[in-house]
Write a structure and sequence with these properties.
By secondary structure, the chain is mainly alpha-helical. Helix content is 47%, strand content 11%. Strands 1-3-2 form a three-stranded antiparallel beta sheet. Helix 3 (88-105) runs parallel beside helix 5 (142-155) and helix 4 (109-121) crosses helix 5 (142-155). It is globular, with a radius of gyration of 17 Å.
Amino acid sequence: MNTKNKTITKINFGGFYKSNHSYNIEEYVEDRELELSDPEHKSLLIEYCKEYINIINYELNTNMQFKELVSPKYYNFSTDYINVEVSNKDLLLIKEFLKEESNYLDSDYKEDLKELIKENTTGRASYIPFYSYNDYFKKENKSLLFECYLDLLLRVKSIEILPYDIELNYQS
């Protein structure tokens, strides 16, 4: 979804199915001897995602806004992701960060972006892409391009957000 200066896109953070994030949540619950109902557990996951976004915003001086945590009914095809609202200004800050990191890591984020889009738009066994390479650069598909920038961002080592860095103040 696009508005004039803001776009709703997703952050593929790795989800909560057998991930570092799920282990962090389990440890948090066990350490506090919490017994959470399903709605309370979902609320805890949402708080975790909000804090995850806050860390990214702090590191990059962005102002992405948490919209929702999306969890699949079954984890055999996909995992959880976070929908966020991203401004054009945020994207420029993310691009600048990736540019600086590219110099430091001796890589080219533009080439990495092209490769990521190629990967997303190339068919293979059990995968038929819905979008073409050129579709990612159309104005009406801005959220796809933003998602790729966020994917690249999370691949960069210095912005890696580790689950134990997330401090929760959850009250059930």
